[in-house]
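ugh ok so i messed up the first submission bc i forgot one of the chains. this is the corrected input, ALL of the components this time, i swear. 233 residues overall. if the numbers dont match what u have on ur side tell me asap before i send this to the collaborators (the ones from the other lab, u know who)
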Amino acid sequence: GAGVSQSPSNKVTEKGKDVELRCDPISGHTALYWYRQSLGQGLEFLIYFQGNSAPDKSGLPSDRFSAERTGGSVSTLTIQRTQQEDSAVYLCASSLGTASYEQYFGPGTRLTVT
Amino acid sequence: AQKITQTQPGMFVQEKEAVTLDCTYDTSDPSYGLFWYKQPSSGEMIFLIYQGSYDQQNATEGRYSLNFQKARKSANLVISASQLGDSAMYFCAMREGRFSSGSARQLTFGSGTQLTVLP
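and heres the new structure output, hopefully the right one now
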């Protein structure tokens, strides 16, 4: 079946602009995660959604970052007033639920802020 | 303190030989899970293997095995019979808390080890 998809694959934006990154999880997966990977680094957790529960936003680096998940499926990560330090690959993952240990990752969106 | 430490930024191995990638972790939670992911140059994260903190046996998946030493808080990945396609970045990760409780759901990743398999 189809895996996790993300769009766009690449995004170049000017400093100060807002960007939206999209994630389409695997059908039936109730848990959705956003991570950020800066160049040459490991992944940094940003936010997590599980079903209809309130999201875990503990990893968001500033209030310029927000995310929503509509209808328990597609998620959008929004970065307002982008800064150069926001440049990174943003990875989305989904899993069957909290009891499932395996997270399936999408291909990521490479964001470059100029 | 770092929760996941990978001390080898880069490793080389000859094709067909075995290689061990090191990972140590730090947690006070008795319930946790340890993961290894592979990230080729194409960028996708590929799940390789999982070890639960209460698992008695070391996890194995094909050519991958996890050398779990709980007292030493070590979860090294062993790749046997290396192949050229194994060249990639390898990440160790941990999830804390019981899975059924839904707590601490996210993964904490190490900084990774770049493995290069030589022909």
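quick check: Chain A has a mean pLDDT of 91. that seems consistent at least. The two ends of chain A are 37 Å apart (CA to CA).
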